[in-house]
What we know:
Two copies of one chain form a homodimer.
Chain A: H1 12-36, H2 40-51, E1 56-58, H3 59-65, H4 70-83, E2 86-90, E3 98-102, H5 104-124, H6 131-141
Antiparallel strand pairs in A: 1-3, 2-3
Helix pairs in contact in A: 1-5, 2-5, 3-4
Chain B binds a DNA duplex through residues 26, 30, 39, 41, 58-60, 68-76, 79, 94-98.
Amino acid sequence: MTQISSPPQRLESWIAYLRSHSAITRELSAQLQREHGLTLNDYEVLLHLSHAEAGMMRRVDLAESILLTASGITRLLEGLERAGFVCKQTCSSDARVSYAKLTDEGAQKLSEASVTHLRGIDELFLGRYSGSELATLAELLSRLPVTGISSSACS
Amino acid sequence: MTQISSPPQRLESWIAYLRSHSAITRELSAQLQREHGLTLNDYEVLLHLSHAEAGMMRRVDLAESILLTASGITRLLEGLERAGFVCKQTCSSDARVSYAKLTDEGAQKLSEASVTHLRGIDELFLGRYSGSELATLAELLSRLPVTGISSSACS
DNA sequence: GGGTCATAGTTGCGCCCTCAAGTGTAGCGC
DNA sequence: GCGCTACACTTGAGGGCGCAACTATGACCC
Lengths: 155, 155
């Protein structure tokens, strides 16, 4: 058993990665939930929509951009639609697709939530590094996979 | 809206962090599930137990070490007990605590799963960096929070 | 037009996890 | 011994999400 009795040096960064992610997202998620009633993924969706042309995206693209499955997006948007932050929009040229469109309330909500959320991210993540360290980190992390959903997404 | 219309440079590492984690854990989890019927957390539990004195730990300590709530651990261990990989052990000096103890089958399972899993981690994470990069990464990640569960966390 | 295949989206089912509330002990001051 | 608080753990309810199966459309070919 000595073979696994002590975590190899190599694994340390992996473990730190896992644990930190768990701790940080739990905290950020709780914050967002408490103060704005949003999930981390809710927030991400609003954010992506706000960056998109005309504030709308195809559901499938939305799914890919926040790394959720198609069904995940359906349910997530369900909640956001009920809350009035996004609305459905059909596509005239292809009846299969439907867009999710950010509403004014959604944009409003996003900008409110952004304040808290960005502060949280800063506290728990960004604020712990200098500018150059952040750049290093970004470079290192950018080598990691970012797909994994269906689609083969030859991104 | 221009205020959030383009993700600030600062946020890039945060986004990479989120996305990579999502992609990697989904893949590893699927791998582990497919080939061994284990969750990522199942695996972590077995691993922690294998490192522990006498192969056993208090449930509450186990919870903290894999960043799960008390109830999460109860349910997770439920599954592992049913599968015969861990067993319950009472404490003679304090009737409140019960230990989770790694069984021989559990140790066996762990060592089987380790092969696949370590390979997966290597492919998706470790293998993308040189030794010194790994050290840098480990150092950077070690500055992030690692608690957030109950305990004090009166946040 | 009628096959065949790819794609967008939804739904049923089930897992994992959290939160809040509840049970059974332990320890402490009286 | 009797309350009181602290702690370890369990349970019930509910949410988020993935997987697989399904529907509806579009594209292509004969």
